[in-house]
Write a structure and sequence with these properties.
The chain is an alpha+beta fold. The chain has 18 helices and 10 strands. The protein has a 4-stranded antiparallel sheet. The chain has a 3-stranded antiparallel sheet with strand order 2-1-10.
């Protein structure tokens, strides 16, 4: 099926005339071939599943799977569809059960979730249909002939205020946004985006982008205005090719994926134990002393620590000499003998013996080095921390013995780590149970996925035309 014209109508012959190259006698096979060329489009438009009565469009599965499979080659279409389904179920719970956690709290600095989903939609379509989309963009940008309208200083000040102000917040209030709607930045010949306003462009910026607008960076403003127009053209092309419903379903799936990721992050999935999550903080506060004690006993190795180390050191005033000593010690020379021969420290006669160094909250810097060393390992030379006018020296450390133990149950670090770990466990149990309940209660109907999935219009235009031509010739041959 050929691309649609800017008016949305398919280019074709004038009424009453056969297409170029066809006589009136050959018109009927031509029309039959044209209808056959449209059949794959009808197949591609069919849903691949119905979830609680609502369809999941084939376009959604085709695009998301092709993009994902380009990074994970073993991924199956069935697995991609399962992810779309669970994302849709979980995302529906965000407003219903998790509204108080404000999963979009970072939107003051990041992109708005819907804007990000729309931009990702365009990027994904470019990945899957690069040639067709680029052709449409090139054609329609030439037709648009966009012209940037540099705003006057007074117009800009009406929205952003005076440029000499120091700002801590770069968001716009409703009054500023109302002014932005009145300020055109770009004019084009296309009906779909004849005028691009400041409001159209500013609402698609993250905090870094808004800073550029506040700073009157007009080169950036013009670039973003043209990108907005290109995005409108791309979405218009996609809507003509796949239909509004299919496009909306794909965009919804992208938004749902981000909502699900935020929901999983709220439950600590994919995050480290110190992740800042309102839900995890609540669960951690509810952990009892008995739960902490039980976790401690079951996971003692998590609380293992070095209690004390027995070490020696060598202190010299020359870095080159320090490197030579390290090399000799690494070859097996006795460290205590080298300390007696070269060390400038008061304990040189004792072979640089530091004795047992006990692990404390405030160990000196030499002790901290010793606690990082494995027994028998010679450290590289470390420059001593001295003032700018003091002569520096270099320290070499070797640990002879190390004793390990466990942090005490009543220590603050044990209580903190146990609470956070138990909070993550409880959160994982909650989200797992929610997922299982949603799948069990869902009304799910998966359609048979053909071996060669029906592709969307843009991907199959060339093959459709070829198939239609061949079918037309076969029908003509049979009649003759």
């Amino acid at each position: 099926m050929p691309f649609l014209s800017a008016s949305g109508r398919k280019a074709g012959p004038k009424p009453g005339l056969a297409p170029s190259g066809h006589t009136r006698a050959g018109l009927r096979p031509y029309l039959i071939g044209a209808l056959l060329a449209m059949l794959p489009v009808l197949v591609a438009a069919a849903p691949v599943a119905r979830l609680n009565g609502a369809p999941i469009d084939a376009l959604t599965l085709n695009v998301l799977h092709q993009v994902a499979a380009s990074k994970q080659t073993t991924l199956t279409r069935a697995a991609t569809l399962d992810e779309i389904i669970i994302n849709r179920l979980l995302a529906a719970q965000v407003a219903e059960r998790f509204a108080r956690y404000d999963l979009g709290a970072n939107q003051r600095v990041a992109f708005d979730a819907r804007v990000a989903a729309e931009d990702q939609l365009v990027n994904y379509l470019r990945v899957v249909y690069p040639t067709q989309m680029q052709a449409a963009l090139t054609r329609d940008m030439q037709r648009a002939a966009p012209r940037f309208i540099p705003p006057k200083a007074a117009q800009w000040d009406a929205v952003f205020g005076r440029s000499d102000k120091i700002l801590l917040d770069y968001s716009l209030n409703p009054a500023q946004l109302a002014q932005a709607k009145k300020l055109p930045l770009l004019r084009s010949r296309l009906a779909l985006a004849g005028q691009v306003t400041l409001f159209d462009v500013i609402q698609r910026q993250n905090v870094q982008g808004r800073v550029e607008f506040f700073n009157r960076n007009m080169a950036f403003v013009e670039q973003q205005s043209r990108l907005f127009l290109a995005g409108r053209i791309a979405l218009n092309w996609a809507q003509q090719q796949f239909g509004a419903a299919a496009l909306a379903d794909l965009q919804q799936a992208l938004l749902e994926r981000e909502q699900t990721r935020a929901l999983l992050a709220l439950h600590g999935i994919g995050s480290d134990i110190d992740a800042d999550s309102a839900l995890l903080n609540e669960l951690a506060k509810s952990v009892s002393g008995e739960e902490i004690a039980a976790y401690y006993q079951a996971n003692l190795n998590e609380f293992k620590r070095i209690v004390q180390v027995k070490a020696r050191h060598i202190r010299v005033n020359d870095e080159n000499l320090a490197q030579q000593i390290v090399a000799r010690a690494a070859k097996g020379e006795d460290f205590a003998h080298l300390a007696r021969q070269y060390s400038r420290a008061p304990d040189a006669a004792q072979g640089g013996a530091l004795g047992w160094i006990v692990h404390e909250n405030k160990s000196n810097w030499l002790g901290e080095i010793a606690f990082t060393q494995n027994p028998g390992q010679v450290s590289p030379p470390f420059r001593t921390p001295v003032g700018p006018n003091d002569a520096a020296s270099w320290e070499i450390v070797m640990v002879e013995q190390r004793e390990e133990g466990y942090q005490p149950l009543d220590s603050e670090s044990v209580r903190y780590l146990a609470r956070r770990a138990l909070a993550q466990q409880k959160a994982l149990q909650q989200i797992t149970q929610l997922r299982q309940n949603l799948l069990r209660q869902a009304r799910l109907q998966k359609m048979p996925d053909p071996e060669t999935p029906g592709q969307a219009r843009a991907a199959s235009n060339a093959s459709n035309a070829s198939n239609a031509s061949n079918a037309s010739h076969r029908l003509s041959a049979r009649k003759s």
